[in-house]
Design the sequence.
């Protein structure tokens, strides 16, 4: 980085933003297999937060790849850069006082740890959307498992690419016997209990 680039202090402080917005912002990092319910539940959580007057923004994997990360592919190097940029954007949103919800498979512990380390203590909430592979495959909302089983998609997480389940997620959501709303409420309760919502 150029030595002449210096970090500017803002005239409006982080604490002042939190007081204005009545929330302690954090990144809700949803991780889970394709079709586990990350996007669906993240959207439901965002709706609940909005209705409580809370400020949030959902960073969706596909949308990010259309814009900010459109120059990146799926090589190991590009996947790392994809997550790094998302982490940096999430950090800016949190600094601005907003909750950030992200819905990426993010299969590797190391990548999730990297984002956690970018943020302050308590600002990274790992949400494990835990749905058995068989059920994800049965739901197959985008028809991707079918294609992966037919060999039309290579390196598909859960089929021929590893998913490392979080060992100690901050929130563990087992979706199999729950409705979308029950899953979303579980997450919002956590935010209330841990003092994220003021
Ligand atoms: P992902 O973002 O993890 O790839 P999606 O949210 O796109 O997954 O798809 C999950 C699918 O499972 C949706 O069609 C959703 O309606 C369905 N579904 C059924 N039950 C649940 C539940 N309890 N939680 C989340 N999704 C569920």
Sequence:
């Amino acid at each position: 980085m150029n030595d002449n680039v210096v970090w500017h202090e803002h005239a409006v402080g982080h604490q002042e933003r939190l007081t204005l917005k009545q929330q302690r912002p954090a990144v809700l990092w949803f991780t889970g297999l394709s079709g586990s319910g990350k996007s669906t539940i993240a959207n439901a959580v965002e709706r609940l937060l909005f209705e409580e007057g809370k400020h949030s923004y959902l960073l969706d994997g596909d949308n990010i790849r259309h814009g900010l990360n459109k120059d990146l592919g799926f090589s190991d190097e590009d996947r790392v850069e994809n997550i790094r940029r998302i982490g940096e954007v999430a950090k800016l949103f949190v600094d601005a006082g907003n909750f950030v919800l992200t819905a990426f498979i993010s299969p590797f512990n190391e990548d999730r740890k990297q984002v956690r380390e970018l943020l302050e203590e308590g600002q990274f909430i790992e949400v494990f959307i835990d749905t058995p592979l068989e059920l994800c495959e049965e739901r197959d909302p985008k028809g991707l498992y079918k294609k992966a089983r037919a060999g039309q998609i290579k390196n598909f997480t859960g089929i021929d690419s590893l998913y490392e389940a979080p060992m100690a997620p901050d929130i563990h959501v087992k979706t199999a016997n729950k409705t979308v709303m029950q899953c979303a409420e579980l997450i919002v309760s956590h935010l209330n209990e841990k003092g994220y919502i003021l």
About this structure: The mean pLDDT is 94. The chain has eight helices and five strands.
